Amino acid sequence: MKRLAALAMLLAAPAAAAPMRVASLNLCTDELALALAAPGQLVSVSRLGADPAESTLAGRARGLATNRGRLTDVVALAPDLVLTSRGDPAAAAAARRLGIAVLDLPEPGTLADVRAQIRAVAAALGRPHAGAALIASLDRTLAAPPAPRPALFIAGGGLTIAPDGLAAQWLRAAGFAQQPVPRGQISLERLLTDPPATLVVSQYRRDQESLNQAWLRHPALARLPQHTRISPSDGRAWTCGGPAMIPEIARLRLWATP
């Protein structure tokens, strides 16, 4: 709550000159910065933010310097604003001693938090109109959600989401109500014996060889009953639960329609 109050104070503060050289140190702030910054305003994003396997907005990072999420990676670029999320307090203090402004965002827990973070980053960038436009797009996507249908969201290894968390709120906006799963992970056996009406499957690094990917390729998943509707979903968008979810929710709504 204290962090959100700090964001509110930022929004209420008098407008300052827009920063000219902005560096983002975190995948989730990369997403916000790439969606909101003016052309030429960003000088660096994290390696993940520039990786098409990790970010749906990686194409916008083409040509930017990349960093490993460390202040020391970007100091030579002379940024006048650094964006990060749940960052290192010592690094933030060091940045301020160097005269670099820092915006450190908390992890969003609700859709209202997502809106607040869009406003905060837009304000820090001197781009309030871009923030308002992005929020308007978000609100149009969330308007008049379909009546929620029971569903189960799963990722590799049978990992799933809490029924009351941010991801579940996004899922509900698409027209699906997440079923509770003990300990946040479901077994193949339970999927076969108690199949959901709809299975939303997060696809993330599908070409990667891993135990999680092997779980999703298990033949048992192909033996689910025909009445179980399976919807693939772009796992990259779910990592941060930020504005990259807007087109994904619009797409998932098509699946929510019987």
Largest sheet: 5 strands, parallel
Helix-and-strand structural type:
alpha/beta
- Helix count equals 11
Strand order of the largest sheet: 3-2-1-4-5
Distance between the termini: 39 Å
Percent helix, as a range, is: 25-40%
Order of helices and strands: HEHEEHEHEHHEHEHEHEHH
Rg estimate, integer Å: 20 Å
The coarse overall form would be elongated
Q: What is the number of E strands?
A: 9
Unreliable spans: 8-14
Strand content: 15-25%
Could you give a short description of this structure?
This protein has about 260 residues and is α/β, with parallel strands linked by helices. The protein has helices spanning about 1-10, 25-35, 70-75, 90-95, 110-125, 130-140, 165-175, 190-195, 210-215, 235-240, 245-255, and strands at about 20-25, 40-45, 65, 80-85, 100-105, 150-155, 175-180, 200-205, 230-235.
Question: What does this protein structure show overall?
Answer:
This protein has eleven helices and nine strands. It is an alpha/beta fold and 258 residues long. Helix 7 links the parallel strand 6 and strand 7. The relative contact order is 0.13.
